[in-house]
Write a structure and sequence with these properties.
There is one protein chain. The protein is an alpha+beta fold. It has 27 helices and 30 strands. Strand 2 and strand 3 form a beta hairpin. Helix 2 packs across helix 13 and helix 16 packs antiparallel against helix 17. The protein is elongated and about 130 Å long.
C-alpha cells in the first residue's frame, strides 16, 4: 500500500494516533463544553432578519394629519435624508403623530446610526412649532419585537384605576427586567387632574380661558428654595404648599377684586378625569388595559419571557388584592418557539438515531458503528459552540441546517472507519503483519483526499445560500452557515478522533472477515443490476436525460413563497372601519367580533387593541383595531381549517375590512415592505386626489384577481374633519392676535398641560380643557366665547369660518414624495403567479 507520507493532513493524523489518549480526552471535553453551550444558547424562532432600522415618533397633540405632515414629518425627513447609509425612508402622518422609519443598509452599525440620527434631531426640535414634543427614537428591539402581551381587567376598579396601576406599578416593574426594551400600554383611562372650564361661567365672571390658564399655571409645581449657610452649618430650605389635590387646585385664586376672590371652582369643575384617549383595549370583550412587552435587540426571547412571567407572578397577589385580574396568556410567542424548536430537535434526534441504526445494519459491529456515530454529536455541538461565539441564536433555521447535516457529518467518519477496518483485516490475514499504528495511519491517509474533496464539494453547494441578500439572506444564511460549520467539524473529527478511536477499539480485537448480511445482499443485487446497465448504456443515459428534463419542466408549476405556512396557534386580525370611527364604536364592533369568534370550539382567547399607544410599534387611528386570537392546541387537519372558519366568521361583518395573519408571517412581510401584506402596490406623486383616484382603480382590479383577499387602501381619504379658518380682517377689528385665538381653540378641545401633581413617585398632569358637555356637539364650536382685548365677549364664529371637510392619513416615502399604497394577500396562490396576474 503506497501512500504519500508528507503533508499537513498526514501530520494531523499521525499526531492524533501518537497522542490518541489526549485527543480522546479533548474530544470528551469538547462534548461536555458543547452541551453546556447548548444549554446557554439563545433560542428564537427566526434569526434577526430585519435590516438595521430606526423609528422616530413625534407627538403633535391636536394637529391634523396635513399639519403633522407639513410641520413635523417633512422637516424631519429633510433633516434625515443626508445621513450616510440610508437605504429607504418611510413615514406616516396621522392625527397628532408623526412616524418616520429609517432603514439602513444591511450590515450597518445600528448603534452608530442611532447616534448620528440623535445628533440630527437635537437641533431640529428647536425649529418646530410650540406645543410639539421632541422627536424620540423608539427603543431598539428585535425583529419579532413582541415577547408577551398582558391584559388587566377588573370587576370593581375603574378603567382609570386599572391604567394607573398599569403605568406606575406593572410597567415600571417590567422595565426593570434585563432584556425588556419597552412596554406599550393600550387602553384604560390615563389619569389627569382636569380643570374643565364652563363657557357660561366664564361669561358670568367676565373671564377668558387665558385667565384660567394663567391661574392654573401658578397652582402647581415644585420650586427649589436654596439653603442658608452660617459659620459652621449649611441648612437646606424645602418649600411646600403647592396644590396636590383636586380640591386644593380648585381653591386657586384667579383674581382678587374688592375683597372678594374668584377661584377656579367658580368657573370650572376640577377633578381627576381621563385625558383625551388615543386608543383602547378589550380582553374577551371586556374593556381593560393591555401591556405589550418588547424585547431588546439581541435578547433571548425565552429567557426574557421567563423573567417577565416571574415578575408577574410576584405582582399577582398584590393585583388580586386590589381587585385586578391579570391575563398573561393573550399572546406568548415563546409557545411557538418552544414548539418549533422541540419539533426540529426531535427531527434531529430521530435522524441521528436512524443514521445509527443504518450504520449498525451495514457494519454489523457495535464498535465500528459507535466510532462512526461519534461524529454526529461532536460535529453538531462544535457547530453550536461556534454559533454561540458568532452571536447567532438557535432557531428553526440554524437547527434546520444541523438537521440537514446529520446524514452528512457521519460520511467522513464512515469512509475512514470502513477503510481502517478493511486494512486491519487484510493485515491480520497476511503473512507479513505490520504494526497496528502503521496500518491505521496508512489507511487514514489513503482516503484523506477523498474525504477532503467530498467535504468541500458538499460545502460548495451551500455557498449560494450565503450570497442571498435582503430579508431572504438574513433568514436563510444562518441555515447555510450551520450546515457548513457542522461539515467542517466532521472533517476535523474524521482526521483526529476517528483514527484514535479505531486504534484503541479495533487495533487489538479479533476481527471477523465476513461481510454483514445486508451488505452481502446488496452487493449481489447491485452486481446483477450493473451487468444489465453495461448491456444498455445508451438506454440508461437517455432515460436519465428524459427524467431530468421532466423534472425541470415541473419547476414552473411549483408554488413560490418566502416562508411556508407556519402553524403558530395564534392569529392577528386587523380590523379597519370607516375612517373617523370613534373609539367607542370600534370597541363595540370588536366586542361583536369577539363574541362570534369565541363560539368557535378551537378559539381559546380573543383580545382587542384599538388606535395606538404612546411609543408603540403600531400607530393607527381610532378606526383601526388589532385582535389577537389564540387557539387551543390543534392537530392535523384542525389547524388547516381554523383559518377558513375564522374567515367565514369575519365575512359576516359587512362594510369592515379584515386581514388575518400569523404573527411571524406578518413581521417578515412588514420588514420587507412596511405593510402586513403579501403584496403592496405603491403609487408616488404629489397630487393626493389623483393618488386616491388611482388607488381606488387598482383596488377594484386587485379585488377581481383569483385568490386576492384582504384588499385594502392603506391611506384612505374621507377622515371627517372640521376646518377652523381665521379671518384676518375680523381679527384686526376685534383686536385679536391669530396665535391667541388658536391657543384658545387648542386649550378648549385638546387641552393644555399647565403643570404636574406629584403623589409619591407618581406624576399626573394638570390640564385645562372645556367640560365634556361642551366638547360633544359640533355646533358648539362656533359659540366658544372669546374675550377681546377691549373686554367684549364674542363668539368664535365671528372671527373665523367653520366648515366640514375630508382629511386623510398621509404617508411619505423617500423624502417628501407622497405615496398611496394598496395591499392584499394571495390566498392559496403561488405569490409569483399571483403578482404576474395582478
Amino acid at each position: 500500500m503506497n501512500t504519500n507520507r508528507s503533508g499537513v493532513l498526514t501530520s494531523i493524523v499521525s499526531f492524533s494516533l501518537r497522542f490518541r489518549g489526549t485527543v480522546i480526552i479533548l474530544a470528551c471535553i469538547m462534548l461536555g463544553y458543547g452541551i453546556y453551550m447548548l444549554l446557554q444558547a439563545k433560542y428564537d424562532v427566526f434569526p434577526e432578519f430585519a435590516p438595521p432600522q430606526v423609528v422616530i415618533q413625534t407627538e403633535a397633540p391636536g394637529l391634523s394629519p396635513e399639519q403633522v405632515e407639513m410641520l413635523v414629518t417633512q422637516p424631519l425627513e429633510n433633516a434625515i435624508n443626508g445621513v450616510e447609509g440610508i437605504e429607504t425612508l418611510r413615514s406616516g402622518s396621522i392625527q397628532g403623530l408623526s412616524v418616520v422609519t429609517v432603514v439602513f443598509h444591511t450590515g450597518s452599525d445600528i448603534y452608530r446610526a442611532r447616534q448620528i440620527l440623535s445628533e440630527r434631531l437635537t437641533g431640529l426640535y428647536r425649529q418646530m412649532p410650540q406645543g410639539i414634543q421632541a422627536p424620540a427614537m423608539t427603543p431598539l428591539t428585535s425583529s419579532t419585537s413582541v415577547v408577551l402581551v398582558i391584559g388587566l381587567t377588573s370587576e370593581s376598579r375603574s378603567l382609570m384605576e386599572i391604567r394607573t396601576t398599569a403605568d406606575w406599578i406593572v410597567k415600571q416593574r417590567l422595565l426593570s427586567i434585563p432584556g425588556v426594551a419597552k412596554v406599550a400600554v393600550f387602553g384604560g383611562e390615563v389619569k389627569q387632574f382636569q380643570i374643565q372650564v364652563s363657557p357660561e361661567r366664564l361669561i358670568k365672571y367676565h373671564l377668558s380661558i387665558e385667565d384660567v390658564l394663567s391661574a392654573a399655571h401658578k397652582a402647581t409645581g415644585v420650586k427649589g428654595a436654596g439653603f442658608i449657610e452660617n459659620n459652621n452649618q449649611r441648612i437646606i430650605l424645602q418649600s411646600e404648599g403647592q396644590s396636590l389635590t383636586a380640591s386644593q387646585i380648585a381653591r386657586t385664586v384667579i383674581y382678587h377684586r374688592d375683597g372678594a376672590n374668584v377661584i377656579l371652582s367658580d368657573v370650572a369643575e376640577v377633578a381627576p378625569a381621563p385625558e383625551p384617549p388615543i386608543g383602547a383595549a378589550a380582553i374577551m370583550g371586556r374593556p381593560g388595559v393591555q401591556l405589550v412587552v418588547s424585547e431588546q435587540y439581541g435578547a433571548n426571547t425565552l429567557e426574557v419571557t421567563d423573567r417577565v412571567e416571574d415578575a408577574l407572578t410576584d405582582l399577582r397577589p398584590m393585583l388580586e388584592a386590589e381587585g385586578i385580574a391579570i391575563h398573561t396568556d393573550i399572546f406568548r410567542p415563546a409557545n411557538f418557539i418552544k414548539t418549533a424548536i422541540s419539533n426540529v430537535r426531535s427531527s434531529l434526534l430521530i435522524g441521528a438515531a436512524l443514521v445509527a441504526v443504518v450504520l449498525f445494519l451495514f457494519l454489523l459491529d457495535l464498535r465500528t458503528a459507535a466510532i462512526s456515530c461519534t461524529a454526529i454529536p461532536l460535529s453538531l455541538l462544535a457547530a453550536v459552540t461556534v454559533f454561540k461565539y458568532l452571536g447567532y441564536s438557535l432557531n428553526t433555521m440554524t437547527l434546520g441546517g444541523l438537521a440537514i447535516a446529520v446524514g452528512v457529518v457521519v460520511d467522513d467518519a464512515i469512509i475512514d472507519v470502513e477503510n481502517i477496518l478493511r486494512r486491519l483485516m487484510e493485515n491480520r490475514s497476511s503473512g507479513n503483519q505490520r504494526s497496528v499504528f502503521q496500518v491505521v495511519l496508512d489507511a487514514s491517509i489513503e482516503v484523506r483526499n477523498a474525504i477532503v474533496y467530498a467535504t468541500f464539494a458538499v460545502i460548495l453547494v451551500f455557498i449560494p445560500v450565503l450570497t442571498m441578500s435582503g430579508v431572504a439572506g438574513q433568514l436563510f444564511s444562518p441555515l447555510g452557515i450551520a450546515f457548513i460549520l457542522a461539515i467542517f467539524a466532521s472533517l476535523l473529527v474524521a482526521l483526529t478522533v476517528t483514527p484514535a478511536l479505531c486504534f484503541i477499539l479495533l487495533g487489538s480485537r479479533e476481527l471477523s472477515g465476513k461481510e454483514p448480511p445486508v451488505v452481502r445482499w446488496l452487493k449481489e443485487k447491485y452486481s446483477g443490476l450493473l451487468v444489465q446497465v453495461k448491456k444498455y448504456p445508451r438506454i440508461v443515459i437517455g432515460s436519465l436525460i428524459i427524467f431530468t428534463l421532466i423534472g425541470l419542466s415541473m419547476l414552473p408549476f411549483f408554488g413560490g413563497g418566502l416562508l411556508p405556512e407556519l402553524r403558530e396557534g395564534h392569529f392577528i386580525i386587523h380590523m379597519s372601519e370607516v375612517p373617523g370611527t370613534s373609539i367607542e364604536e370600534s370597541l363595540r364592533l370588536g366586542q361583536h367580533v369577539t363574541e362570534e369568534l369565541l363560539r368557535l370550539p378551537f378559539v381559546r382567547t380573543v383580545s382587542q387593541r384599538t388606535g395606538r399607544a404612546e411609543r408603540a410599534d403600531d400607530t393607527w387611528g381610532t378606526h383601526y383595531s388589532e385582535l389577537n386570537v389564540d387557539l387551543k392546541p390543534l392537530k392535523g387537519e384542525e389547524g388547516e381549517f381554523a383559518l377558513v372558519d375564522i374567515r367565514k366568521i369575519l365575512a359576516r361583518f359587512l362594510g369592515v375590512n379584515f386581514s388575518v395573519k400569523t404573527f411571524l408571517t406578518e413581521r417578515v412581510e412588514e420588514t420587507i415592505s412596511g405593510y402586513t401584506a403579501s403584496v403592496a402596490v405603491n403609487l408616488f406623486g404629489n397630487n393626493l386626489d389623483i393618488l386616491d383616484k388611482k388607488a381606488q382603480e387598482i383596488d377594484r382590479v386587485l379585488s377581481r384577481v383569483s385568490g386576492a383577499i384582504d384588499v385594502q387602501v392603506q391611506s384612505p381619504p374621507g377622515v371627517p374633519q372640521i376646518v377652523i379658518r381665521l379671518r384676518k380682517d375680523d381679527l384686526m377689528r376685534w383686536g385679536f392676535n391669530p396665535v391667541d385665538a388658536l391657543d384658545v381653540i387648542r386649550t378648549a378641545y385638546q387641552g393644555d398641560i399647565v403643570g404636574q401633581v406629584y403623589d409619591g413617585n407618581r406624576v399626573f398632569d394638570v390640564s385645562v380643557i372645556l367640560n365634556p358637555q361642551s366638547r360633544k356637539n359640533i355646533k358648539d364650536i362656533g359659540t366658544l366665547p372669546l374675550l377681546s382685548p377691549n373686554g367684549v365677549y364674542i363668539q368664535l364664529k365671528q372671527i373665523c369660518d367653520i366648515y366640514e371637510t375630508s382629511g386623510r392619513y398621509i404617508v411619505l416615502h423617500q423624502g417628501a414624495r407622497r405615496v398611496q399604497t394598496i395591499t392584499c394577500n394571495a390566498s392559496g396562490r403561488d405569490i409569483n403567479s399571483f403578482v404576474r396576474e395582478a
